[in-house]
Amino acid sequence: MNKSLFINSATNPFSINPNTGDLRLANSLKLDVSNNTIAIGINYVQANQGTTTIAIGNAVGQTNQGTTAIAIGNAAGQTNQGTSAIAIGNAAGQVNQGSNAVSFGREAARVAQGAFSVAIGYLAGEIGQKNNAITIGNKAAQTGQRANAIAIGNSAGRTSQYQSSICIDVTGTNLNASVPGCFIRQLRSLVPPSGAIDTGFGRVFYDPSSGELYYSNG
After folding, report:
1. What 3-state class would DSSP assign to 102?
2. N or C, which end of the chain is more exposed by having fewer CB within 10 Å?
3. Strand, helix or coil for residue 29
4. Could you tell me the pTM of the whole model?
5. Burial of 40 (0-12, 13-18, 19+ CB in 10 A)
6. What tens digit of pLDDT does each residue of 9-62 get?
7. How many angstroms separate the CA atoms of 70 and 190, rounded?
8. Could you give the CA distance from residue 194 to residue 190 in angstroms, rounded to a whole number?
Protein backbone atom coordinates (compact mmCIF):
# COMPACT_ATOMS: atom_id res chain seq x y z
CA MET A 1 0.00 0.00 0.00
CA ASN A 2 1.32 3.41 -0.93
CA LYS A 3 1.56 5.86 1.93
CA SER A 4 2.10 9.60 1.72
CA LEU A 5 2.78 12.47 4.12
CA PHE A 6 0.03 15.08 4.22
CA ILE A 7 0.71 18.52 5.65
CA ASN A 8 -2.02 21.13 5.95
CA SER A 9 -0.06 24.27 5.15
CA ALA A 10 -2.75 26.46 6.68
CA THR A 11 -2.39 24.93 10.13
CA ASN A 12 1.01 23.23 10.07
CA PRO A 13 3.59 25.12 8.00
CA PHE A 14 6.26 22.63 7.01
CA SER A 15 9.60 23.08 5.28
CA ILE A 16 12.77 21.19 4.44
CA ASN A 17 15.89 22.84 3.09
CA PRO A 18 17.22 20.38 0.49
CA ASN A 19 20.70 21.90 0.65
CA THR A 20 21.23 21.63 4.41
CA GLY A 21 18.58 19.16 5.53
CA ASP A 22 17.16 21.68 8.00
CA LEU A 23 13.57 20.87 8.92
CA ARG A 24 10.79 23.05 10.35
CA LEU A 25 7.29 22.04 11.41
CA ALA A 26 5.27 25.05 12.54
CA ASN A 27 6.48 26.06 16.01
CA SER A 28 6.73 22.51 17.32
CA LEU A 29 9.81 21.03 15.66
CA LYS A 30 13.13 22.36 14.38
CA LEU A 31 16.09 20.28 13.26
CA ASP A 32 18.92 22.56 12.24
CA VAL A 33 21.54 20.32 10.69
CA SER A 34 23.89 23.15 9.80
CA ASN A 35 24.15 24.26 13.44
CA ASN A 36 23.59 20.83 15.03
CA THR A 37 20.56 22.04 17.01
CA ILE A 38 17.33 20.33 17.99
CA ALA A 39 14.20 22.06 19.26
CA ILE A 40 10.96 20.20 19.98
CA GLY A 41 7.83 21.57 21.68
CA ILE A 42 5.55 24.58 21.74
CA ASN A 43 7.07 28.07 21.93
CA TYR A 44 10.54 26.59 22.03
CA VAL A 45 13.69 28.56 21.15
CA GLN A 46 12.64 31.87 19.62
CA ALA A 47 15.88 33.84 19.62
CA ASN A 48 19.60 33.06 19.59
CA GLN A 49 19.84 29.31 20.02
CA GLY A 50 23.52 28.44 20.18
CA THR A 51 25.13 25.75 18.08
CA THR A 52 25.05 22.08 19.13
CA THR A 53 22.12 22.59 21.51
CA ILE A 54 19.01 20.65 22.49
CA ALA A 55 15.72 22.16 23.64
CA ILE A 56 12.70 19.93 24.31
CA GLY A 57 9.45 21.12 25.92
CA ASN A 58 7.06 24.05 26.18
CA ALA A 59 8.80 27.47 26.24
CA VAL A 60 12.13 25.73 26.65
CA GLY A 61 15.44 27.48 25.87
CA GLN A 62 13.36 30.31 24.53
CA THR A 63 15.91 33.15 24.52
CA ASN A 64 19.72 33.03 24.34
CA GLN A 65 20.42 29.34 24.82
CA GLY A 66 24.19 28.96 25.00
CA THR A 67 26.36 26.77 22.83
CA THR A 68 26.27 23.03 23.65
CA ALA A 69 23.53 23.60 26.25
CA ILE A 70 20.68 21.17 26.94
CA ALA A 71 17.22 22.11 28.23
CA ILE A 72 14.44 19.57 28.70
CA GLY A 73 11.10 20.29 30.39
CA ASN A 74 8.48 23.01 30.61
CA ALA A 75 10.27 26.41 30.65
CA ALA A 76 13.62 24.74 31.36
CA GLY A 77 16.57 26.99 30.52
CA GLN A 78 14.05 29.48 29.24
CA THR A 79 16.15 32.66 29.31
CA ASN A 80 19.93 33.08 29.11
CA GLN A 81 21.04 29.50 29.57
CA GLY A 82 24.83 29.44 29.71
CA THR A 83 27.30 27.57 27.55
CA SER A 84 27.36 23.80 28.19
CA ALA A 85 24.69 24.13 30.89
CA ILE A 86 22.14 21.37 31.47
CA ALA A 87 18.60 21.96 32.77
CA ILE A 88 16.16 19.07 33.09
CA GLY A 89 12.76 19.45 34.76
CA ASN A 90 9.86 21.86 34.97
CA ALA A 91 11.35 25.40 35.16
CA ALA A 92 14.79 23.99 35.93
CA GLY A 93 17.50 26.60 35.29
CA GLN A 94 14.75 28.84 33.99
CA VAL A 95 16.49 32.23 34.14
CA ASN A 96 20.22 33.02 33.90
CA GLN A 97 21.69 29.57 34.35
CA GLY A 98 25.48 29.86 34.43
CA SER A 99 27.89 28.12 32.10
CA ASN A 100 28.63 24.45 32.80
CA ALA A 101 25.94 24.41 35.50
CA VAL A 102 23.58 21.48 36.04
CA SER A 103 20.02 21.62 37.36
CA PHE A 104 17.87 18.53 37.61
CA GLY A 105 14.38 18.55 39.10
CA ARG A 106 11.29 20.72 39.30
CA GLU A 107 12.34 24.37 39.70
CA ALA A 108 15.87 23.32 40.56
CA ALA A 109 18.22 26.33 40.28
CA ARG A 110 15.31 28.23 38.76
CA VAL A 111 16.88 31.69 38.95
CA ALA A 112 20.53 32.81 38.67
CA GLN A 113 22.43 29.56 39.07
CA GLY A 114 26.18 30.18 39.17
CA ALA A 115 28.74 28.70 36.81
CA PHE A 116 29.95 25.14 37.48
CA SER A 117 27.29 24.60 40.15
CA VAL A 118 24.97 21.61 40.59
CA ALA A 119 21.39 21.50 41.88
CA ILE A 120 19.45 18.23 42.08
CA GLY A 121 15.97 17.93 43.58
CA TYR A 122 12.70 19.84 43.93
CA LEU A 123 13.50 23.53 44.56
CA ALA A 124 17.14 22.65 45.15
CA GLY A 125 19.28 25.79 44.82
CA GLU A 126 16.17 27.52 43.51
CA ILE A 127 17.34 31.14 43.73
CA GLY A 128 20.82 32.63 43.65
CA GLN A 129 23.03 29.54 43.87
CA LYS A 130 26.61 30.80 43.50
CA ASN A 131 29.55 29.45 41.53
CA ASN A 132 30.91 25.95 42.22
CA ALA A 133 28.18 25.17 44.75
CA ILE A 134 26.47 21.78 45.07
CA THR A 135 23.04 21.05 46.46
CA ILE A 136 21.20 17.74 46.50
CA GLY A 137 17.79 17.18 48.05
CA ASN A 138 14.30 18.59 48.43
CA LYS A 139 14.60 22.38 49.03
CA ALA A 140 18.28 21.97 49.82
CA ALA A 141 20.07 25.36 49.72
CA GLN A 142 16.89 26.80 48.32
CA THR A 143 17.93 30.46 48.42
CA GLY A 144 21.27 32.25 48.46
CA GLN A 145 23.70 29.36 48.62
CA ARG A 146 27.17 30.88 48.45
CA ALA A 147 30.20 29.85 46.43
CA ASN A 148 31.87 26.49 47.00
CA ALA A 149 29.21 25.37 49.49
CA ILE A 150 27.73 21.87 49.64
CA ALA A 151 24.26 20.99 50.93
CA ILE A 152 22.90 17.45 51.01
CA GLY A 153 19.55 16.39 52.42
CA ASN A 154 15.99 17.64 52.85
CA SER A 155 16.12 21.42 53.50
CA ALA A 156 19.86 21.28 54.26
CA GLY A 157 21.43 24.76 54.16
CA ARG A 158 18.08 26.07 53.05
CA THR A 159 18.70 29.81 53.41
CA SER A 160 21.96 31.72 52.75
CA GLN A 161 24.32 28.83 53.36
CA TYR A 162 27.77 30.23 54.04
CA GLN A 163 30.52 29.94 51.46
CA SER A 164 32.87 26.95 51.62
CA SER A 165 30.67 25.18 54.14
CA ILE A 166 29.15 21.70 54.16
CA CYS A 167 25.66 20.87 55.43
CA ILE A 168 24.47 17.28 55.57
CA ASP A 169 21.05 16.81 57.13
CA VAL A 170 18.93 13.68 57.41
CA THR A 171 16.39 15.21 59.80
CA GLY A 172 14.81 17.87 57.58
CA THR A 173 15.20 20.50 60.31
CA ASN A 174 16.76 23.24 58.16
CA LEU A 175 20.33 22.68 59.33
CA ASN A 176 22.37 25.65 58.15
CA ALA A 177 25.90 27.05 58.25
CA SER A 178 26.67 30.65 59.19
CA VAL A 179 30.45 30.15 59.06
CA PRO A 180 32.79 27.99 56.96
CA GLY A 181 32.80 24.48 58.37
CA CYS A 182 31.19 21.06 58.34
CA PHE A 183 27.70 20.70 59.79
CA ILE A 184 26.06 17.29 60.09
CA ARG A 185 22.79 16.22 61.62
CA GLN A 186 22.79 13.64 62.94
CA LEU A 187 25.69 11.59 64.36
CA ARG A 188 25.64 8.67 66.75
CA SER A 189 26.85 9.32 70.28
CA LEU A 190 29.34 6.73 71.52
CA VAL A 191 31.81 6.45 74.36
CA PRO A 192 35.26 6.09 72.75
CA PRO A 193 37.11 2.87 73.57
CA SER A 194 39.96 3.05 76.03
CA GLY A 195 43.20 4.30 74.46
CA ALA A 196 41.50 5.57 71.29
CA ILE A 197 42.86 9.07 71.74
CA ASP A 198 46.59 9.27 71.16
CA THR A 199 48.78 12.27 71.85
CA GLY A 200 49.64 14.16 68.68
CA PHE A 201 46.37 13.49 66.86
CA GLY A 202 43.64 16.09 66.51
CA ARG A 203 40.49 15.43 68.49
CA VAL A 204 37.15 15.63 66.74
CA PHE A 205 34.23 17.26 68.51
CA TYR A 206 30.56 17.47 67.65
CA ASP A 207 28.17 20.19 68.75
CA PRO A 208 24.68 18.62 68.73
CA SER A 209 22.94 21.99 69.00
CA SER A 210 24.49 23.50 65.86
CA GLY A 211 25.40 20.27 64.11
CA GLU A 212 28.99 21.42 63.63
CA LEU A 213 31.78 18.90 63.39
CA TYR A 214 35.21 20.29 64.27
CA TYR A 215 38.56 19.31 65.73
CA SER A 216 41.17 20.50 68.20
CA ASN A 217 44.87 19.82 67.92
CA GLY A 218 45.53 21.00 71.45
Report:
1. strand
2. N
3. strand
4. 0.81
5. middle
6. 555 566 667 666 666 666 667 767 767 888 887 776 667 788 999 988 888 888
7. 48
8. 12
